[in-house]
Design brief:
GO terms for molecular function: rRNA binding; tRNA (uracil(54)-C5)-methyltransferase activity, S-adenosyl methionine-dependent; tRNA binding. Dual-specificity methyltransferase that catalyzes the formation of 5-methyluridine at position 54 (m5U54) in all tRNAs, and that of position 341 (m5U341) in tmRNA (transfer-mRNA). Belongs to the class I-like SAM-binding methyltransferase superfamily. RNA M5U methyltransferase family. TrmA subfamily. The protein folds into two domains: about 210 residues, Rossmann fold, CATH 3.40.50; about 120 residues, Beta Barrel (OB fold (Dihydrolipoamide Acetyltransferase, E2P)), CATH 2.40.50. By secondary structure, it is α/β, with parallel strands linked by helices. The radius of gyration is 22 Å and the shape is globular. It starts with 9 loop residues before the first helix and ends with a strand. It is about 30% helix and about 30% strand. The strands form three sheets. The chain has an eight-stranded mixed β-sheet with strand order 1-16-17-15-14-11-12-13, with helices on both faces. A seven-stranded mixed β-sheet has the order 4-3-2-5-6-7-8. α7 links the parallel β12 and β13.
């Protein structure tokens, strides 16, 4: 599949992804996937550019995979949000006019949100000084953004070190703090569709939910409204802190969040060994009817996959359909696919996000 941005080929590329997902799930008698398309342009809420010096000026640049010496110079970026495209030339004009901002600047990262917030991270091969801070503070005010300066071992924050997002799920608005440097879903419109699908697939329940790999609470917030209580795990300290804030900010009070890997939680639930981070949490008090997983590209390891088998319902969001299929193969003897979906988070690439609801046979 071509990675070239060409909206006229979008429907064809999406159809090819749907067929690929069908083929991967065909051995498991999967129903036809629900398909959630993407806006054809201006869908990506974050972008990262290296800077390339040419003609005495620094330009935004990207490189083909595996290529470090032949830049693709960029003036605008139609897959990125309109806010990013508005900020790009204004940011470029600012560093061209200011030695304090441009000196040894090598990378610029933009993070925007559907709620209209924006944060820009500037990365330098030099220590940041007072002159930089004065210039950055003035620029942040002019652009209406937060600016973060990064140099070796140092980070200076002008404004906030997170962007504020607001997503609509089933008629309710959920607010999210998205920290600088932490993972966030890049395609906000498709993320909303994904949250809505997961909310519907889980359904309203009277028992409890276990969530693995919860990140900043992207799925946790809406899914918590569907169950009695949630035990959620995440290993990244930055994501845990953001999730705790997001739970509090949205008045979601039926979630306990612990900083454990999926593998460690498996050991805890199997009573292999105790964990101090679970102190005060009575695992036996939970009546888990469902588990929600959103693992990294490698999918679930075999032990975690076996852990999910003990639940009646497995709600699985995947960023890699090959590892999704491998995990389903391990579970297929006890669980069948009741629902599946394709979420086109990454138009014009071969990547896709997919979801399945597995229920006990």
């Amino acid at each position: 599949m071509s990675a070239v941005f060409d909206p006229s080929t979008y429907d064809q590329q999406l159809a090819a992804k749907v067929e690929r997902l069908r083929e991967l799930l065909a051995p498991f008698d999967a129903p036809q996937p629900a398909v959630f398309d993407s806006p054809r342009e201006h869908y990506r809420l974050r972008a990262e550019f290296r800077l390339w010096r040419e003609g005495g000026q620094r330009h935004y640049a990207m490189f083909a995979p595996g290529e470090k010496h032949t830049p693709i110079l960029i003036e605008d970026f139609p897959i990125a949000s309109r806010r990013i495209n508005d900020l790009m030339p204004r940011m470029k004009s600012a560093w061209q006019a200011s030695e304090a901002l441009s000196n040894k600047l090598f990378q610029v990262e933009f993070l925007t949100t559907l709620a209209g917030d924006a944060m820009i991270t500037l990365c330098y091969h030099r220590p940041l000084d007072e002159a930089w801070e004065v210039a950055a503070r003035q620029l942040a005010g002019e652009l209406g953004v937060s600016i973060i300066g990064r140099s070796k071992g140092k980070r200076l924050v002008i404004g906030r070190d997170y962007a504020q997002e607001a997503l609509q799920v089933a008629g309710r608005e959920f607010r999210y703090r998205q920290p600088e440097g932490a993972f966030t879903q890049p395609n906000g419109q498709v993320n909303q569709k994904m949250l809505g699908w997961a909310y519907e697939a889980l359904g309203q329940r009277e028992d409890d939910l276990l969530e693995l790999y919860c990140g900043n609470g992207n799925f946790t917030l809406p899914l918590a409204t569907r169950v009695r209580k949630v035990l959620a795990t995440e290993i990244s300290k930055t994501s845990v802190n953001a999730a705790l804030h997001n739970l509090d900010d949205n008045a979601v009070d039926n979630v306990r969040l612990v900083r454990l890997s999926a593998e460690e939680l498996t050991e805890a639930l199997n009573e292999v060994r105790p964990f101090r981070r679970l102190e005060g949490i009575d695992l036996k008090s939970y009546d888990f009817g469902s588990v929600f997983v959103d693992p990294p590209r490698a999918g679930m390891d075999p032990d975690t996959c076996e852990l999910t088998r003990r639940f009646d319902n497995i709600l699985y969001i995947s960023c890699n359909p090959e590892t999704l299929a491998a995990n389903i193969a391990q579970l297929h003897d006890t669980h069948r696919i009741e629902r599946c979906a394709l979420f086109d988070q990454f138009p014009y690439t071969h990547h896709m996000e997919s979801g399945v609801l597995l229920v006990r046979r």
